[in-house]
Amino acid sequence: MNKEYSLEEDVRHGTQKRPMTAMHFTTGPGTLYPEYFFVQRHWHHNVEIVKVMRGSYAVELNLENYVLKEGDICFINSGELHQLEGKEHDTVHNVLIFNPHILEFAYEDEVQEGMIAPFLAHISSLPRIVSSGDAVYETISGLFDRAVEQALEERDGWYFRVKLLLMEMLYEVEQSGRMVSVSSIQSASDKERIDRYKRIVSYVERHFAEKVSLEQLAEEAQCNPQYLCHFFKEIAGVSPIQYLISYRIEQARGMLADTTKTVLEVSFDCGFENVSYFIRQFKRAVGVTPREYRRNGDSA
Predict the structure, then answer these.
(1) Which residues of 122-160 are buried (b: 16+ CB within 10 A; e: fewer)?
(2) What pLDDT digit, counting tens, does each position of 199-211 carry?
(3) pLDDT (tens digit, 9 = 90+) per residue, 247-279?
(4) Angular region, 271: left φ>0, alpha ψ -120 to 50, beta rest
(5) 3-state SS assignment for residue 76
(6) What letter does residue 29 receive in the DSSP assignment?
(7) How many other β-carbons are positioned within 10 Å of the β-carbon of residue 228?
(8) Cα–Cα distance, 113 to 169 (Å, whole number)
């Protein structure tokens, strides 16, 4: 499935026993990102830590925009909408992604009650960005670099050591006063808008093959259709129905490329009740008809 229109990431990072992974991203000829790095807006339940090794990036966190420069460390908390885009062709960054519950203690000691539990309950939050001018930067940066190195090499005992480094990182952030309350970085109204946005996107992904009306989407978002159109377009740049059509077209592209279903079958499987309407919408979005797309492949 093309993930461009799928906002809730369904990729498993790590394994059941070791729910953590480190990644090293470079851009340029011969890489996965030959022109520049770009990851479309999405969210996941893991915590993600990004460190810029070279270049600069535009990052969107819960619809707020920031610029990451070389050396900056960005914390993406569980459930936060985020998007990352390289601002130059030649960028490098490292990423550590982990399930935050690996930091949890079964015993309710003062660390669990005072630091871990509020973090897991989304009461407290890791800071947006830690930069070289911050007092805690050198410590956090060193811990992060060691954690990424261990996780990339995956030598014996790496998971245990990285888990300890993450715990130490969280402790240093807490002790430096950089942990923040979620309410201080996100108002109740913003949280409501983002939650509604997520519900609409998730509903579209689950029901795109069915008949979907604006009224159904408004009911899912628990608001009236007029307000739904207003706030959704503010966030996505398109109306909910336009988003639905775009998502259906993306699924159709996958089916045309990966199956032998007829255009009519693809049309119906993607929620279009009228094949002529499907063909018009497909050509408007992709530039060619479904048959031409299948004939030409991904080069269309």
Answers:
(1) bebbbbbbbeeebebbebbbebbeebbebbeeeeeebbe
(2) 999 999 999 999 9
(3) 999 999 999 999 999 999 999 999 999 999 999
(4) left
(5) strand
(6) T
(7) 23
(8) 17
